[in-house]
Amino acid sequence: MESRMVKFYSKESNKLAMHAIPGHFATSHSHINYYIDVTSIKTRVKEAKEAAHVLYGKIGNPMYVDTIVCMDGTEMIGAFLAEDFEHGNVMSTNLHETFYVVSPEVNNNNQMIFRDNMKDKIAGKHIVLLLDTTTTGETIRRSLECIRYYGGIVEKVVSVFSTVDKVDDTEVDTIFTASDIPGYQAYGQRECPFCAKGMKIEAMVNGYGYSKL
Question: The pTM is what?
Answer without folding.
Answer: 0.91
